[in-house]
Amino acid sequence: MTVEIRTKSVKPLSNSFGHLQRRFGDKPATRYQEATYDIQSSANFHYKPLWDPEREMFDVRRTAITMKDWYALKDPRQFYYGNYTTTRAKQQDALDRTLDFVEKRDLLRAMPADTRALIEHAIVPLRHYEWGANTNSAHVAAYAYGTAVTSPAMMNTMDRLGMAQHISRIGLLIDGNSGESLLASKTTWTDHADWQPLRREVERMFVTRDWFEVFIAQILVADALVYPLFFQHLDSAIAAGNGSALSSLTDYLMRWYEETGKWVDAVIKTAAAENPENKALLTGWTVTWRDRLVAALAPIAQSTLGNQSEDAVAAVVAAFNTRAVKLGLSV
Fold first, then answer.
1. Taking the mean position of all CA atoms in its chain, how far away is CA 260?
2. Which DSSP letter does residue 14 get?
3. Which string of b and e fits 73-105 if b means at least 16 CB within 10 Å?
4. Residue 13's pLDDT is what?
5. pLDDT at 44
6. Angle at the Cα of 216 (from 215 to 221), degrees rounded to 5?
7. Please, which residues have CB within 8 angstroms of residue 277's CB and are 6 or more apart in sequence?
8. 3-state secondary structure 74-113
9. What CA–CA distance (Å, rounded) separates 140 from 287?
């Protein structure tokens, strides 16, 4: 008896979902495309939101920015749930090894008492800044339109919780896992005069209705000033006299900021190029929040960087202005 095995190829009737075919044609789609494009709910809503009866549940009118196609605001990182979680898990493994290295050698507690006090005063309270950023990113994710924006905004909310936890672990490395630095940092954030201007601006974002303005205020402007000032300039000042133990822990924060910046820049650049009205709105919001936040950061910069504070703030603002101009804004 002979057995003949034949191979038979089956041609698929369709290479991708119908909504992707209508946008990209009948060809295989990437995972990012499948998880992002044209899956925003847009019709057949049963009820209007009672808290905003003039609009639909998902409504493009929740921002003054206009777009012909909201999916033009795509993420160049092409993050969707699968590759986002895989990427962050690998980064967390590497970060845990760094934290273990510093903890086993007690590198932060070996620093002079005044340096540990400076870190507790200037770095650990930023865990509350990250909590505020989490809330603001959640606002963007909730009220924006189009999965191209809402999906990475939701990932950003998770990232902010991770950053808050990472900064908390720096505090625990300073106080020997007693938690005293975390309690002190909360009091510093809520009561210390140096921090109240920044706290006020974060809370002002809480009551800003336009989600795109919140995106500009928090994710473009505030992060572009806070991250380089604390994790680059202040970190360098501390490292100059105490070694690189703290830098090894803040390095990830700056790398995350640079990675996230690719998404932020793509969104702003595309929206600004859409029409002159968008560019004018984005420029106005950017200038307003930049000036507010620069003034808000001045007290904490002065108390932590001393006579270097003016140069540090000026360098951070100059870098931000250069970046904004490249995005098409007239700042």
1. 6
2. -
3. bbbebbbbeeebeeebeeeeeebeeebeebbee
4. 86
5. 86
6. 120
7. 66
8. CCCCCCCHHHHHHHHHHHHHHHHHHHHHHHHCCCCCCCCH
9. 20
Alpha-carbon distance values, 101 to 61, 105, 247, 296 (Å): 50, 6, 13, 35
Residue numbers of the chain with a pLDDT score lower than 50: none
By CB atoms closer than 10 A (0-12, 13-18, 19+), residue 192 is middle
Integer CA distances (angstroms), 13 to 19, 20, 27, 91, 212, in order: 15, 14, 11, 40, 41
Contact 128, 186 (CB under 8 A): yes
Q: So what's the pLDDT on residue 33?
A: 96
Residue type, 46: H
How much is the pLDDT for 4? 78
CB-based burial, 154-175: b 16+ in 10 Å, e otherwise: bbbbebbebbbebbbbbbbbbb
C-alpha 282/C-alpha 275 separation (Å) is 11
| Alpha-carbon gap, residue 25 to 258, rounded angstroms | 34
Q: Alpha helix (H) ranges present in 105-231?
A: 113-122, 126-143, 147-175, 180-191, 196-206, 211-214, 223-228
282's tokens: 């984005």
Question: What letter represents residue 127's amino acid?
Answer: R
* DSSP 8-state symbol, 28: P
pLDDT score, position 7: 80
Specify the length of the chain in residues: 331
Q: Which two three-digit tokens encode residue 284?
A: 């106005």
H helices then E strands: how many in the chain? 14, 0
